[in-house]
Amino acid sequence: MPDVHLPPLGDTIDEARVTTWLKQVGDAVAFDEPLVSVETDKVETEIPSPLAGVLTAQLVREGETVDIGTVLAIVGDGEAVAEPVPAPSVTEYGGADAPTSFVGVADVATFPAHGGVATIAPRDNRVRTPLVRRLLAEHGLDPVAITGSGADGRITRDDVLAAARRIEPAATPAPAPVSVPVASPAVVDPPSTDPNGPDPIEDPHWQPFNRVRKVTGQRMLLSARTIPQVTTVMRVNYEQVYRARQEHGAAFRERTGQSLTYLPFVSMAAIRAIEEFPHLNASVVGSGLRVHPAVHLGIAVDLDFQGLMVPVVRDAQDLRIEALATRTADLANRARERRLGHDDLSGSTFTITNPGGFGTLAGTPLVNPPEVAILCVEGIAEEPVVVTTFDGSKSIAIHHIGHLSLSWDHRAIDGAYAAAFLARIRREIETRDWSAVL
């Protein structure tokens, strides 16, 4: 009978919470019919049935959080089973229960935190996922000493991390050689794995991060720690774009129901520039650079100051201005309403962030791993500029001026390449006949 697994839900998501069972044991289900709703810190989605048949077992309760790859249910072509059956062997996602005949390192040994010899221990059936086994091994914890909060006493990731925070073993001094008496070194407390220290849960002024904020912070910390980043800023004259918006904005709103903003123009200019500077649409892999053939454009979306999501406009190089604008707006709206699917949140190759609505002058955005660059659209405002007429005379005019900030990975490119890329975007914005494009 086919198993229904919790599929990958995004590049940085390793677990999800089952919120609602849409079908009950014994119900007939059609192929691709939603069986269960799940949520993560970034997305709410429904998991469909892989075939037509009968839901014979629900293996996870509502409200339970499980790892990617966990078997959620079983769909068969006959009668429903009376009792839930245990999850089967390891799946392609690596998250289901291992069969009892499979023995892994984390299944047979408890690893001491500070030296000593690992002791052989029987498999604990409450440890059901590779993630939990890995965390137990990393922190040197014995699952027997941990009370599981999951279904049937299952030990979850949070249970392991909570136990690790409670235990702070002291380091053992090194023994002195017998032949040469020496003083034992002082006992030093091991460094904390969390540089911010334990959560001050009794502090009335302390507020825990929500899940979106946690994941955003983890991604940004990864970016800051692993990518040697530089930011280049360039001034841009948006007057051509402004005039096109004035000329076509009303008709665009009538056709689409949306405002014609500056963002799709900048997006198209960046896509055209990538054609000439493909190393900006790439990822550092090993000791080299993987240059992506298609531009999957990530759009950073603020979630009412609670964190960020980066939904993806796929194959953006094939889209015209109107399609770029409508797809970007649709993704942003669904992100704020938590209605994105896992395909909407994975696979971006180049990201644009747009804080300019707040009037920013220049920022230093952090690159979105594993990409090599992120483009920041800053505030646009009227400014006096010097313009040259056809006869060569100069005058002062009021134009719409803003800045573009490009943060980039110095492993992948150098400053000249980044500056030339920005200059190409600027030339596209300033000189293209945007009215003809619309």
From TrEMBL:
Ranges annotated as spanning the membrane: none
Coiled coil: none
Required cofactor(s): (R)-lipoate
CDD domains assigned to the protein according to its UniProt record, in alphabetical order: lipoyl_domain (cd06849)
Domain Lipoyl-binding: residue ranges: 1-76
InterPro entries, sorted: 2-oxoacid_DH_actylTfrase, 2-oxoacid_DH_E2_comp, Biotin_lipoyl, CAT-like_dom_sf, E3-bd_dom_sf, PSBD, Single_hybrid_motif
The keyword Nucleotide-binding is annotated on this UniProt entry: no
Enzyme Commission designation: 2.3.1.-
Similarity section: Belongs to the 2-oxoacid dehydrogenase family.
Name the record gives this protein: Dihydrolipoamide acetyltransferase component of pyruvate dehydrogenase complex
Organism name: Nocardioides soli
